[in-house]
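Quick question: what would this complex look like in 3D?
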Amino acid sequence: MNKWLTPRSTLGLVLVAAALIVLPFVVGMGGQAWVRILNFAILYAFLALGLNIVVGFAGLLDLGYVAFYAVGAYTWALLASPHFGLHLPFWAILPIGAVFACIAGALLGAPTLKLRGDYLAIVTLGFGEIVRIFMNNLNAPVNITNGAQGITLIDPVVVGQFKFSATSTIFGLTVTGPQKYYYLLVLLALGVILVNYRLQHSRIGRAWQAIREDEIAAKAIGINTRNVKLLAFAMGASFGGIAGGIFAAMQGFVSPESFSLIESIMILAMVVLGGMGHIPGVILGAVLLAILPEALRYAVVPVQKALFGEVLADPESLRMLVFGLALVLVMRFRPAGLWPSPERRRELAEKTQ
Amino acid sequence: MDILFQQIINGLVQGSIYAMVALGYTMVYGIMGLINFAHGEVVMIGTLVAISIVTLLVQSGMPPALAGAFGVAGAALVCMALGWSLERIAYRPLRRAQRLAPLITAIGMSIVLQNLAMMIWGRNYMTFPPLIEKTQYEFAGAAFTSVQVMIVVVAALSMSGLLLLVYRTRLGMAMRATAQNPAVAGLMGVNANRIISSAFVVGSALGAIAGVMVGTYYEVAHYQMGFMLGLKAFTAAVLGGIGNFAGAMAGGVLLGLIEALGAGYIGDLTGGFFGSHYQDIFAFAVLILVLMFRPSGLFGEKTGDRA
Amino acid sequence: MSAPVLLEARAVAKHFGGVKALRDVSLTIRQGEVYGLIGPNGAGKTTFFNCMTGLYVPDGGGFVFAGAPLVADAPHRAAERGIARTFQNIRLFGNMTALENVMVGRHVRTRAGVFGAILRNGATRAEEAAIRRRAEELLHYVGIEDCADDLAKNLSYGDQRRLEIARALAAEPKLLCLDEPAAGMNGAETAELRVLIEGIRADGVTILLIEHDVKLVMGLCDRVAVLDYGALVIEDVPAVVQHDPRVIEAYIGVAA
C-alpha cells in the first residue's frame, strides 16, 4: 500500500480532496441549479459504479438496472412521507431499500442468469418495464404507489437536528441544501469506489473476470458460475437501491416517469462510454453524460443565435440530437470507451492490427 | 365466449404488425448478432414519411388508395436508404469492436432519429389520412373493419415475399449461409458486406410497410411511437427465437394474441384487481417465462456449451 | 497389493442425436497412477472427460470418485471433489496475467466472499496473501515464474500449456486430467512435459492422460485404456496394450 504514498501522489490526493471540498461553492456561484446538476452527476457516478459491478466486472448485460433504483426510491418514499404517514429515519430506510433492491435482483437473477448475453439483456429490460408499469398502476384498488402522480412531500435526509434540505450557517458559512447533499453524495460515492476497487481485486472479483473471459474454463476450475453471477447481480442491485433512496430524499418527489427504460440505457451508456470495468473511466463517463445534456441546454440557444442570428431548431430536441451523436461518435472513434483499463486498450490494439 | 373472438381478431392484427417489425430485428441479428435498437425508429420514420406523402397527394386530388400506394413506396425507399446508411455509417466501423459498442451506437442512433423526426414533423400527434374506406363487418358476434383485413392481408403477402426471397433466390441463400457461418460463407465467395447491407435494406422495407400499417390502424402517429413498438417487436423476435424467420413471424402473432387476450381477461381473472392498463406487462412477463424454460426462444436452436 | 481405486466409471454412455459417442465405458483409475486414455480421433476420449468433469450429463451409467458417486449436474462440483482438468484447445483467461490465472485456480480451496472483500479484514488479507504465495509457488513449480505478470494470451504455446497445468494444480486435485497436453509440442518440449508430469505424480497426484503421442503414453503411463468408436477396447499395462491386435487395428484401421 505504502508504495503509492509518494510525496507526489500525496500532493495529488490533497489537491483532489481540496477541489472536491470547494467545488460546490465554486459551482454555487453560478446558481444552485448548477449544484443540483453536480449532485446528479455524482448520483449517476454512484449508479454507474453499481452497474459496473454487473456489466463491467461480471460481464452481464443488464438493461433494467433502473428497476432497482426505483425499488430504492419507492422504499424511501413509502417509508418516509405522509403517503402512509410513516417517517422512519434515514439510517433505517437506506439499508431497507438496499435489501429490497437486493432481493429484487436475486429474484430476477436466479431464474434468468443462465441465459446468453442478449437474451439476458432483453429479460432485464422487460423486468425494468414491469416494475415501472406496476408503479404506474398500483394506485387502485389499493393505493400503494399513487400511480402516475407519484408521491410528494418525501422527507429529506435528517441527522438529529441537521436537515439536509434547508440552508444553514456553519462556522459563519452559508451552506445550501444542495451543497449539503453534495457532501453526502461525495461520501457515498467514495464508499462505492472503495467497494468497487476492493471487489475487483478479490477472490470474487477474479472469479467474475474469469467468467467473463471463459465461462467453461471457469466452471472447470470449480467456480459456481450461477452463484457468483447472482452475487454480482445482487450487489449491483443493492447499490441501485441506495442511490434510489438518496434520489427520493433529495427530490422530495418520486414518480414512475423517473424510472423509464431510457434511464437504464443512460446508466449503461455511462459505463460503456467511460470504459467498462475501469473505475476512473466509469466515473468519467457518468459525469460527462450527466452534465453534457444540461450544459447543452444552456449552450444550444446562444450558439444558434450567434451562428444564424435566430433560433432555428427546438433547443430540447437539438440537445438530445447532439447527445445521441456524441454517443455514436465516441463509440466510433474510441470503441473501448473514453478511458479504458490498460488491459482492454491492449486487447483492442491487438484486434485492429 | 363473449369477447374471445373479438380479442383474437384484434390480436391477429396487432400481431401481424409485430411480426413485420420483428423480422427486421431477426434478420440483422441472425446475420451479425447485433440488436439494432434503432429499428423501431426506422419504422416510425416510415410512418411519418408516409403521412407526409399521402397528405400531400390527397390534397392535390389523388384518390386515397393510390396516394397510399405512393406513400408505402416512398416510405419504403426512405427507410431502405436509412437502414443502409445506418449500417454503413454507424455499425460497420464497429464490427470488430467489443460487443457492447454497437449496442451503445444503436441507442445513440435511436436518440438521433427520434429527435430528427421531432424537428422535422414536430412534437404533436399527427393524423394518418384514411387510405381505404373503413367498413365494419360482423362475424360470430365480433366486429372487424376493412382496415384490419387489409393489414393482415398485406402482412401475409409481404412475409410470403420475404420467404420467397430467403429460400428461392441466390441472395437469400447467401444470407442464410452468412448467418450460419460468416467465415465459411466468405470463403465460398459470399460478400459479407453486401449481405449485411441487404439484411438492413430488406428489414427496413418491411419496417416501412409495418409503419404504414400502424398509421392506418391507429390513425395517428408520433415521433415517439417507434420505441415501444420496437421493444415489443424485439420481444416477439426473442420469443420466437431470434435469428429465426419463422420464429419472428410466429412470435409476433403470438405476442399480439397474448396481449389482446390478456388485456381482455385480466380484469376477470384477478377479480378486478388488475385492469387492462397492465397490458404491457404481458409481453414481458411471457417473455421472461418462456426464456426461463426455453432459453433460446420457442423456435430457436438449442445452443449448448462446448468444451 | 494394488492401490485403492480413485475413480470408477460404470457403463458411462453418451449420445449426441444418433451418434453414440460413448458406449457403456467402464474403467477404474487407481490412486497414484498415471492412467492413459488413447484412441483414434473421434473415439470419444474428450467426451469421456467432459462427462466426468460435469460439462456433459451422461445418458447412462455414472462415476464413483473417492468412494462417493459424482453428481453429474454442475461442473464446479467435480472441481470441489478434487478433479481438475486442462483442455485440448487450451482455455486460459487470456486477459488476466499468468499469476492471476493461477490465483483464480485457488477459488475452490478458498473462502473469502463479498463482505470479506469489502471489509478486507485480517482473515481475508491473510487468505489473499496465501493465495498469491501458493500461485507464485505453482508458477515456479511448472517453470514459468518469469512470466508471472504477462497476460496469459501473450505466453508462448508451451508456456500456456504449463500455465494451464499450474492453474489446475492450484485446486489441489486428487485427480488431474490432462487433455492432449503434448499436442503441438516439439520433441524437446514433450520431454520437458514428461518430466513435469512425472514430478506431479511423485507428489501424489493421480493423473489421467489423454494423448495422441503413443510413445509418450507408453513411456509414462502405468496403465492404458483404448477407446474406439466410443467403446472400451482394452484396459491394461502398456506392454500388453501395445501388442494387442485390436489396438493395432483401431489405430491402423482396415489397411493393416
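Answer marked as accepted. The two ends of chain B are 53 Å apart (CA to CA).
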